[in-house]
C-alpha cells in the first residue's frame, strides 16, 4: 500500500524532527522555519540521496508523479489504459465528478468516499470564501462558475480570494488529503499557484463537492464538453437538514442557512433543474437522497461509482467499513451508524418545530418524497421517506 508507506514515512520524519527540536530546546513551531529540514529529510530518504538544498517545485512534482503511478498501480483504469491517459500533466483527460448539495446533507461523508479512490484530487468546497450564502445567479453566479471551471482545469491563477481565504481556513485543503500531505512536507509551496497547478495536473481523478451553488447554475458545468463533468445532486429531508444546522455555530442568523422557506424554495428550484438535466444529460447527471444512501451505503456507492466511471477499489470498501458502522468522533465526524444518522431529527426536534418546517416545505417535500409526521405520537418512529420520481 504505497499510501500507507508514505504516511509511515511522514510519521517517522515528523518524529525525528520533533526529537531534533526537543534536543535543541527550540519551540515546537516548525513552520515555515524548518520546512527546509523537512524537505531535505524527505529528499534524502525518499528520492535521490542528494544532499544539496531544498527540493524545487519541479523535484516535488517529479517525485510525486512517480508516487501516483505506484499508488494507482493496481487500479483498473477504464479501457485498459493507464494513469497517463487521465492526467492533465500527460495531456490526458481526467474523470471529473462533482457533488452538488447544501449544508448538512451528508456531503462530507460522500466527498470522502470519492476521495478514498487512489489517485483522486479533491477540490473541497471551492466556494468556501463566499461565506454562508447560496449562489443562485447574479451577482456571484458567473464568477463562481468560472472559478469552479478553473479549478477543474487545475488553473490556480486568478484565484487569490480562494487561496487567501484558505490560508486562514486550512480545512479548504485538509480534506484534499493528498495535497495536504504535501502541504505538511512543503508548507512553502502549499498555497503557491504554480505548485498547485502542476500538482493537481498529476491526478487522473478530480472530485469536487459544493454546498453553495444551486443546481440551475451547475448546468453551465455540464454544458462544457471539454470538461466532461459528471454531476450528482445530493438531496436530504429539510427536517434533517435544519435540525443539524441548528447545532452549528456558523449557521443561525444567516437566512440562506437557517430559514426553512428559503431552503425549501431552493429544493424546489433544484428539483426543476434536475428534471431538465436528467433529460439533457442522462449519462452525466444523477440524483441521490442522503437517506437512501445511508440505509444501504454499499449498494448505493457501487451504483454511484458506475455512474462516476470509478472502480470500487478495496480502499473505498475499507473507508465504508470504518465509517458506516459505529458512532464515534465529534459532531462533524463521519464515523457513525449510517442507518440511524439521517433520522436523528425525529428525536431532537419537537412536534411544533417539525410542523413549522413542514408548513414551509410542503411542495419541496412532496417533490422529493418526504412524508409529513401525522401527529406527535408517531413522530419518533414513522418512516419519513417514500418514493420520488424525476420526470
Ligand atoms: C472508453 O472507450 C469508449 C469507446 O471508445 C468511450 O466511449 C468511453 O468514454 C471510454 N471511457 C473512458 C472513461 O474514457
Ligand atoms: C419546541 O422547541 C422550541 C425550540 O427549542 C421551543 O421554543 C418550544 O417551546 C418547544 N415547543 C414545545 C411544545 O415543547
Ligand atoms: C397518529 O397518527 C397515526 C397514523 O395516522 C394514527 O394511527 C394514530 O391513531 C394517531 N394518533 C393520535 C393520538 O392521533
From TrEMBL:
GO terms for biological process: N-acetylglucosamine metabolic process; sulfur compound metabolic process. One of its GO terms (molecular function) is N-acetylglucosamine 6-O-sulfotransferase activity. Residues 1-25 form the signal peptide. The keyword ATP-binding does not apply. Residues 98-368 form the Sulfotransferase domain. InterPro entries: Gal/GlcNAc/GalNAc_ST (IPR051135), P-loop_NTPase (IPR027417), Sulfotransferase_dom (IPR000863). It holds the Pfam family Sulfotransfer_1. Keywords: Signal. This is Sulfotransferase domain-containing protein.
